[in-house]
Task: structure prediction
Amino acid sequence: MLIGLVGRPNAGKSTFFKAATMSDILIANYPFATIKPNHGIAYVKIRDLAADFGKISNPREGFVKDSWRFVSFDLMDVAGLVEGASEGKGLGNEFLNDLAGADALIHVVDMSGESDGEGKPSKDYYPGNDIKIIERELDLWYLGILKKVWKSFAKIVEAQKVNFADAVFKQFSGLKITLEDVKHVILKHDINVEHPSKWSEEKIFEFARALRKETKPMIIAANKMDRPNSKENFLRVKEEFSYPIIPCFADGELSLRQADRHEIIKYIPGESNFEILKELNDKQKEALDKIKKTMNEYGTTGVQEILNVIIFDILRYVAIYPAGSKLEDSKGNILPDCFLMPPNSTALDFAYRLHSDIGNGFVKAVHIKTKKAVGKDYKLVSGDGLEIMTK
Result:
């Protein structure tokens, strides 16, 4: 699974990325500080199943802090997007190509209004404009893919009686679009696909837009909420747009994670507080007081919440533990693995995720907590610990 970070230049994408991944990357206060995409590992936060048994997990990937387990997924920060990117302006073509493999998008928006759509200093800029720019450029990207072949595509569909959904699916095969995605868009929007050659430019655009929204779902990270005008802008943006919009303070989250790494404080990502462990100098006190003030207003810095929402609420993935009766692998490691599985995955899907031989030999799965057996069609629930029994 790959999540893409998008946004216009200087919105705080790279800070968000570094806070989420703790990768060593360039953060600079000027447009296009990110040229090539940065790839890193971010984490969703779940309850550690081992804690229910009085134990602590030993993750092969990810980590554990207190009773929380952090499960990894891929995060990518791409070059800032400006208006006209779909026509090659800025680093537009590279940006869009980089996003082809993303399952969903986090749009980092500067809520302060202190820089414009190109990342240049400004006053009283309305952040909602950035959302509209990104939306339109993504829509035009999808539209461009359709329009390149539309005339010949429409003729083939009509003359050869090719299924419309199948044809669209093949055209977008490089963008992680499934046949079910296309069918869902057609049904949801009640689209008549019998005569595509007669479609107007507007209808083609609306179809491209619907397909984009279905296949690249997006959450808004309302960044820089510590700035003076951010709250007012946030409320206005939330009123106008239907996307999930979560206030965040990526710079504060990065500072907290760095301070935790250096054992200056104890901080668990996503929590509403932190514990000071060492004597602080005046500069450190001032910085932490500022972060705490913003956290008091919004609950958390928002970064971990955004990561969890996009994986669990938007993409509806579930976190599943392979768990034997003793919770240990052959080396004595407690629950070393935890996998993120797609929505509607079954016990049999999970068995195949572990190994094809386990899937082929599947007999039943046993819940590690309840000791109850379930069959191959059992729908996985996030947090399940399952032992797969084979022939």
